[in-house]
Specification:
Layout lengths: L13 H11 L3 H6 L2 E6 L7 E8 L7 E4 L17 E8 L4 E2 L1 E5 L2 E4 L7 E8 L1 E2 L5 E3 L3 E4 L1 H4 L11 E6 L5 E4 L2 E2 L6 E4 L2 H5 L3 E4 L2 E7 L2 E9 L5 H19 L11 E7 L5 E4 L3 E6 L7 H16 L26 H18 L5 H15 L10 H6 L1 H5 L6 H4 L5 H17 L6 H11 L9 H12 L4 H7 L8 H6 L3 E5 L6 E2 L2 E4 L2 E5 L4 H5 L6 E5 L2 E2 L4 H6 L6 E8 L2 E8 L1 E2 L5 E5 L5 H11 L20
Parallel strand pairs: 1-12, 18-19, 19-21
Antiparallel strand pairs: 1-2, 2-8, 3-7, 4-5, 4-8, 6-7, 9-10, 10-11, 11-16, 12-15, 13-16, 14-15, 17-18, 20-21, 22-31, 23-30, 24-25, 26-27, 26-28, 28-29
Length: 622
């Protein structure tokens, strides 16, 4: 079956055109139109205090409601940034102090006497490193716009300038455009771009590279024994791989400059996408360990993919952002899960990891997820919609009642990709679907919906995906991964069933961490946070799995527990341990279509058959 993939014409709306001009052209025009100004002082950064002055227009002289967002894009959780504001004062342009009243947790009402600009001075306590919102000390300051800069509804769309009083020896890294006239100042066409352009200010290691003439900077704060040449080459390969998906081979990158910000510090990890930059956390050991570095490249790939998927192609429920309330959508499985699928697939295509390494990693993910009881309870659509109250507010019972729109979303995206290839004889893939969605549903068109995605799938494949979505997106049907992988000539091989008995308990030392609903301990009443003291009367030595290996399934085990300092005894009839491992293997004799799908999917050749080693020659008699 041959399916033509048609290009989609796109007319730019004024706001989208303004944002594209900002990213592509000389920012001089914005300097002449600035209506909002912020000044950042880092004189007290060593005490983790950042002083900010905001000048906001109020031409009508009416009471002004000034807000700080309650969350930041990329983290689907109410963070209540306003709680870090130490003090806030307001005055008019003539210096007259104005009354300020709080009207909700993140909004201040200012009552002016005259029309004209209002100047607000406030201090934030910058001690939130792990959530990538604001952090300052004697070596740097990191500011994410939603956690640092006040705005008003009427000024959200106005051009703005951010001045930074830069300490001696520090540098500023940001995706914002530098002011062509004023030093240590940066410009944005509106508040939304400011929110999506964090600032990293401090002592940095800087590595630069170019893709198709477009400059990219890697900025590292912290200790990192990084191979600059390798880092630049690997990051460039990732950029090209993602560009080729959304823009076509040789297409133009959707920005004039890109900044990779890296915090290399002990004990932190994760990343957040932004308009033409990203902030990523990793440990210093990442740069000296091959396995850690490979995982880090997956993070880089994930955040870079977001440059198209989320920063420009965004679900309708999040377009435009509402900074004060939750932004509900049932499509986080595409925003985050599809991104998670592509982050490692594109590493294979770019030659940064071997196909066998990717398949082994996928096997581990499948092995872990197939044991999760929550797959039978929560759908991907519900997981997406309830991210604000469930995914980012974890409980010990999550394993029984929830799924991750990241992990399951990645698996369903993989299945969707292979299903598309199967239905179209490999003429169309998920790459084509995303590219066309990206062209047809820009931000200013209001984003895309599940119906839009289904319509695009039907248009490109001439088949319906309603049943697929009903089973795996809005439903909780078990994922038919065996069928999906068969399309690419792969088979899931079940590992040996582990010996011994199963209770369905995971431990953290002597403390019960989770109790799985598919195990006998759950029905018997064992609870998370119970302390395990004895097993069959013997003192617990800290390794429950080793003890259970010696017990036959069906036998009764007596656990001596302490709950809220009260001892109790629970008897449990054990069951056989579930199969815990699956591995992906290549079929012996792939069809021409299976081989073609495998090679276009991973961008690598089907592995050559292993040639058996020759027997050593038999020595002759002396």
């Amino acid at each position: 079956m041959q399916v033509a993939v048609a290009a989609v014409a796109l007319a730019l709306t004024p706001a989208l055109a303004r944002a594209q001009a900002y990213l592509a052209d000389d920012p001089s025009a914005w300097a002449e139109q600035v209506a909002v100004e912020y000044t950042v002082s880092l004189a007290r950064a060593h005490s983790q205090l950042v002083d900010i002055t905001a000048r906001l227009p109020n031409p009508d002289g009416r009471p002004l409601s000034v807000r700080l967002p309650t969350w930041r894009p990329g983290k689907y959780l109410i963070l209540d940034h306003a709680g870090t504001i130490v003090q806030l004062r307001a005055r008019d342009a003539n210096g007259l102090v104005l009354p300020v009243h709080k009207t909700d947790k993140a909004t201040w009402r200012i009552d002016p006497v005259h029309a004209g600009d209002i100047v607000i001075e406030y201090t934030i306590y910058a001690n939130s490193l792990n959530d990538r919102t604001r952090h300052a000390d004697d070596t740097h300051a990191f500011l994410s716009g939603s956690a640092a800069f006040l705005y008003t509804d009427s000024s959200r769309h106005l051009p703005l300038r951010v001045r930074v009083e830069v300490p001696q020896g520090w540098q500023v890294a940001t995706g914002l455009a530098p002011d062509p006239v004023e030093p240590n100042a940066w410009l944005a066409p509106d508040y939304d771009v400011l929110v999506d352009s964090p600032l990293e200010i401090g002592e940095h290691q800087l590595i630069g590279f170019s893709v198709d003439g477009t400059p990219h900077d890697i900025v590292i704060w912290g200790q990192a024994e990084a191979d600059a040449e390798k880092l630049a080459a690997d990051f460039a390969a990732i950029v090209r791989a993602h560009r080729d998906i959304f823009e076509g081979v040789g297409g133009r990158l959707p920005y004039q400059r890109y900044v990779f910000m890296i915090h290399s510090q002990p004990g932190i990890g994760g990343g957040t996408e932004h308009l033409n930059s990203t902030i990523m956390h990793t440990r210093p050991s990442t740069f000296t360990s091959d396995s850690s570095y490979e995982r880090f490249l997956g993070l880089v790939s994930h955040e870079m993919f977001h440059t198209w998927n989320v920063k420009r192609l965004r679900p309708a429920g999040m377009t435009p952002y509402n900074y004060q309330l939750e932004n509900y959508t049932d499509l986080l499985w595409v925003a985050e899960g599809t991104t998670s699928y592509y982050d490692d697939v594109t590493l294979v295509r770019a030659g940064l990891i071997e196909p066998d390494s990717y398949l082994a990693q996928m096997s581990r993910t499948i092995s872990r997820e197939r044991l999760r009881p929550g797959y039978a309870v929560q759908s991907l659509a519900d997981s997406s919609y309830d991210a604000w109250i469930k995914f980012n507010r974890s409980t010990p019972n999550d394993v029984n009642t929830t799924v991750s729109f990241y992990t399951k979303g990645a698996l369903v995206s993989l299945m969707l990709d292979l299903e598309i290839r199967s239905r179209t004889d490999n003429a169309v893939s998920l790459d084509n679907v995303l590219r066309q969605l990206y062209l047809r549903y820009p931000l200013d068109a209001g984003g895309f919906t599940t119906s839009d995605m289904l319509d695009m799938l039907e248009s490109l494949t001439e088949t319906s995906f309603e049943a697929f979505f009903g089973a795996y997106v809005s439903g909780t049907q078990p994922l038919d991964l065996d069928r999906a992988f068969a399309v690419a000539g792969l088979t899931l091989v079940e590992g040996e069933r582990p010996k011994g008995a199963y209770l369905g308990i995971s431990m953290s030392g002597e403390t019960v961490r989770t109790v799985r609903a598919n195990g006998p301990a759950f029905a018997a009443g064992v609870q998370a946070n119970d302390t395990l003291r004895t097993v069959n009367g013997d003192e617990f030595d800290g390794d429950l799995d080793e003890l259970l290996e010696e017990i036959r399934p069906g036998k009764t085990v007596t656990l001596g527990l302490t709950r809220r300092e009260q001892p109790r005894e629970i008897r449990i009839v054990t069951m056989a341990r579930p199969v815990a491992t699956w591995t992906l293997e290549h079929v012996d004799e792939p069809t021409a279509l299976q081989r073609a799908v495998y090679e276009s999917w991973l961008g690598q050749a089907w592995p050559a058959p292993e040639v058996p080693a020759e027997d050593p020659p038999v020595p002759s008699d002396p």
